[in-house]
Design brief:
The chain is mostly beta strands. The protein contains 3 helices and 44 strands.
Length: 467
Amino acid sequence: MVLILLVSLVLCLVPLPVCANDFYVDPVNGSAGGDGSAEQPWRTIQEVFDAGLVQLQQWDKLRYTEQSVLVVRNTGAPVRAGDTIWLRSGYHGELFIDKHYNLGNITIAAEEGHTPCLSSLRIRSSSHWTIRGLTVSAELGEPYRRRTLVDLDSHGWGGPVHDITIERCAIRSVADVSDWTIEDWNQLACNGIQADGTRMTIRDNRVLNVNFGISVNASDSFIRGNLVKNFAGDGLRGLGERCIFEYNTVKNCYNVNANHDDGFQSWSRGPEGVGTGEVVGVVLRGNTIINYEDPNQPFRGTLQGIGCFDGTFVDWVVENNVVITDHWHGITLGGARNCLVVNNTVLDRNNMSPGPPWICVDKHKNGTPPVDCVVRNNLATDFRNAAGVLEENNVRIRDPAALFVDPGRFDLHLLPGAAAIDAGSDAGAPRLDHDRIIRPQGTAIDIGAYEWHASDVLPVDADSQGL
């Protein structure tokens, strides 16, 4: 009760806007001389920034240092913290938000029923922005330019970026890559989302036809429910500490260059380079990684599922992930301390070399063995864990048809009576399965990412803590 009262008191002391206002931008019917109302909308979102129509904070001096102080700029501008700028259908150009720190969140969103488009979005040295429901595609710009489509960027001169949300956006190089050549992939494929800074939220976006999908250098960030489909680099990258990657889908890798493609990749960076530092506190939960859906996909190659080779990875939880791939590395942590790999399902895509994919917690490249790591309750086609890793209640997949509903169509839910049912340990096991079904549904927890359950059992609405 005391804690609740203290939190309530703190909230009462936080200055909030008196009321939230709505503004409108319409590239077809708007005017630079409008007032931003629904009846007289502004013309493009970039013009709103260029005209100084957003009240903001900027550093009192540049270059930014930790001693810099934020001061209010554009006093009296109509758009302020708490407001929403609604974008209507049409092409809004490139949007660059630079050195715009807000006292509270400002939202830029697609008006209901509208499809506003950008050719790129860059937010640099700024904070407290939400971008929702936009289409970002390089093919809209003239001339076409290969770039990072959504770039959330800290800058040594302008300052850090933090507290940005990108959600429910469609992000793509082009809409159709069916006729792309290898040269096209290497010259035209843009990167999807790049996020620096801290406290970034990247949620429920569709990232299509890209080089690298979602790359997160930021710390303390949340990457949930995104689709990365048709990519030539890595689907997801997580280099920042204390980040949660959950319920994302990564599929259809195109092998067009020398990059060692991963569904998810991480590595450490330290004073002596790659592999000499630590990446701490990452959670990989409920993600689905599929090497390829169509056996006839052009430029189909192999894909390392969750490939983390240059630790040390510290205090990681890897749970409820489904990895279906044509490679040896299904889930690999090279250099780990106090990591838990639990209730994952890893399946070979085609029973051909390379493969079968394994779950492997191994020594660091410098020879340091893993310490206090556990591999438990997993279904996989192979296991290659170093000495000293605690292995419990894992099952090697011999006959997928005896375990899964339809492995050929990537349905790895357990069949009734499968040997994995009620065969797991509850020690360290997630309370929800890959579909957010509460565990256990029987006398004990099932092995693998899915908990077998009756048809009338429904998923729970879980938050990022896995409830």
